[in-house]
Structures are given as C-alpha cells and as structure tokens.
C-alpha cells in the first residue's frame, strides 16, 4: 500500500509539473518592436502633415552655418508629451517609436530627449512651447509662429532648457 501511495503522489507531482511547464512555455510571449524616427509624423498613429517645430542638436551658431544645416535635428507637428518617444499596443504587440536626431550632421542618431540646444518654429499658424518636464510641466520657452516672410528664425534654448527638453506643444 505504501508503494501505491508513493506512485500516486509521484504521478500527481508529474501532472502538476507538466501543467506548470505548459503555462510557462506554451504561451507565446508578447512581441515588442522599437523604431527610431526623427519626425513624429512618421509614427503611424499620429495624424499630421509635416513637422513645423525643429529641435536641433547644436546651438544656433553651430546648427546652421552659411545657410546650410550642419546639425542633426528632429521635427514635430502636434503636441509631444514626451520627447523620449511614444508607445502603443497593436493587438498583443507593443510598438514603440523613439525620437532621435536625424538628417545627418552633429548628433545624428542621438536620442532627442534632453539633448536639444536650439529650436526653429516654421509653422505658419502655430506657436509652440518647449518644456523642461514630460507632460508639459516646469520651465518653458515660447516660440512664435513663422514670420510674415517665411523666415523660420532659429533660437537657442534658454539655459534652463538647453539639453533639458522633455515635451512640447502648441501654445
């Protein structure tokens, strides 16, 4: 009888072990994908036409020289609550887009959050603010819409925001 009881316990333990393994290894893990973009209009769930707010890796004197862009930059159109990026589930897969400086030049490929030194607002109708914190909080700087002659002036970020930029939105 002791042998039968041990076999029953061993069989029960084997069943529990098999069920546990099926739970651990049988379910497919959720997939995740991360992409780097230098324009938030390249994110599929953001509806926009083109980037109006340009954030440059370098200060204005280095970013644009002799009329040529020498610095990497990121362009945004719309409110961006976190310059680190944006994520969204598509079914069971998490897709993340990280904002990076692109388009060649100094800083190309660097993450954009807390790395911008100057800003250019080329929007014809929209004013922008850049903020110290994600979620539009803390110190901010105002950038007026494009001038009447399409001049898109580039401006250095104030010292509190230089390399401390975390969000931006229409002002």
Detailed description of the structure:
This protein is α+β, with helices and mostly antiparallel strands and 171 residues long. It is 17% helix and 32% strand. It is built from 2 helices and 12 strands; from the N terminus they run αββαββββββββββ. The strands form 4 sheets. It has a 4-stranded antiparallel β-sheet, with no helix packed on it. A 3-stranded mixed β-sheet has the order 1-7-6, with no helix packed on it. Strands 10-9-12 form a 3-stranded antiparallel β-sheet, with no helix packed on it. The longest helix is centred in the first third of the chain and has 25 residues. 30% of the residues are buried. The N terminus is likely disordered.
In short:
It contains two helices and twelve strands, in the order αββαββββββββββ. It has helices at 2-26, 60-63, and strands spanning 32-37, 53-56, 64-65, 68-69, 73-76, 85-90, 93-99, 118-121, 128-133, 137-143, 154-156, 167-170.
Number of helices: 2
Unreliable runs, pLDDT <50, ≥5 residues?
A: 3-27
SSE pattern? HEEHEEEEEEEEEE
How much strand?
25-35%
Sheet with most strands: 4 strands, antiparallel
Determine the structural class based on helices, strands and strand pairing.
alpha+beta
Estimated helix fraction: 10-25%
Can you tell me the overall shape? globular
Tally of extended strands?
A: 12
Radius of gyration: 25 Å
CA(first)-CA(last) distance: 82 Å
Strand order of the largest sheet: 5-2-8-11
What's the rounded overall pLDDT mean?
85
